[in-house]
């Protein structure tokens, strides 16, 4: 995740340790897996407005196939575990889908759809995603829930009051779970208002303002 070791070599070594593991163990892992809240809504909203979606992972197709089906993602790409007689052989099929392969996949998908890099959106949370994120109109953010778990609540810090399950004024979703155009427009206007307020609060860069900001405080 942090890019401190060679991904392909580390993947081969770790998969080798799974030799003989029954496929039932993968099924048990999947049974205990939960999608990130909002994943289905995100994909449904993108597809409802004409966007193509793909899941590109350094993990394994055994899982990405199921995640893609659960979320409605159109295509998925990942590493392939070798199975024989209902168990893992300890091998992962070549080629390895690594950092460079993620970027190449994004570029190929864009070319197939005649899209400029600026018309693509990539989302990732690891070092292996950095090249892909730089290859388009990228976003890189650690999921909020994972960040909260990692940070933990500071001792003595009061808990925030729980939010109501349904906030008044929010538009309803479509039957397919996507957000409507009016909802997206409303969120866009809200974001623009926040940006405008921030711009108004920030100091200008003319000389008089800079002098005023750096003027030494009076003594005494």
Structural summary, described in words:
The chain is α/β, with parallel strands linked by helices. Helices cover 43% and strands 14% of the residues. A two-stranded parallel ribbon has the order 1-2. It has a two-stranded antiparallel sheet with strand order 3-4. The protein has a two-stranded parallel sheet with strand order 5-6. β5, α6 and β6 (137-140) form a beta-alpha-beta unit. The protein is globular. The N and C termini lie far apart (54 Å). 11% of the residues are buried. Residues 144-150 and 204-214 have low confidence and may be disordered.
Q: What is the gist of this entry?
A:
By secondary structure, the protein is an alpha/beta fold.
Would you spell out the secondary-structure blueprint of this structure?
Blueprint: H1 7-16, H2 23-31, H3 39-48, E1 54-60, H4 61-71, E2 75-79, E3 81-84, E4 87-92, H5 99-112, E5 121-124, H6 130-134, E6 137-140, H7 144-151, H8 181-201, H9 207-213
Parallel strand pairs: 1-2, 5-6
Antiparallel strand pairs: 3-4
């Amino acid at each position: 995740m942090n890019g401190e070791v060679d991904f392909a070599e580390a993947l081969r070594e770790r998969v080798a340790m799974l030799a003989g593991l029954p496929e039932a163990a993968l099924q048990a892992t999947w049974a205990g897996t939960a999608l990130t809240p909002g994943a289905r809504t995100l994909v449904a909203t993108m597809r409802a407005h004409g966007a193509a979606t793909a899941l590109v992972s350094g993990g394994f197709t055994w899982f990405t196939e199921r995640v893609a089906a659960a979320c409605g993602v159109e295509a998925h790409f990942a590493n392939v575990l070798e199975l024989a007689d209902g168990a893992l052989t300890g091998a992962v099929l070549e080629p390895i889908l690594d950092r460079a392969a993620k970027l190449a996949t994004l570029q190929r998908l864009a070319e197939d759809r005649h899209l400029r890099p600026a018309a693509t959106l990539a989302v990732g949370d690891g070092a292996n995603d950095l090249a892909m994120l730089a290859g388009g109109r990228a976003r890189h953010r650690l999921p909020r829930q994972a960040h909260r778990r990692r940070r933990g609540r500071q001792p003595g810090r009061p808990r925030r009051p729980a939010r109501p399950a349904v906030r008044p004024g929010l538009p309803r979703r479509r039957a397919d779970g996507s957000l409507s155009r009016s909802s997206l427009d409303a969120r866009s206007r809200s974001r623009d208002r926040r940006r405008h307020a921030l711009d108004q609060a920030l100091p200008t860069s003319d000389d008089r303002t800079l002098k005023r900001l750096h003027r030494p405080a009076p003594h005494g």
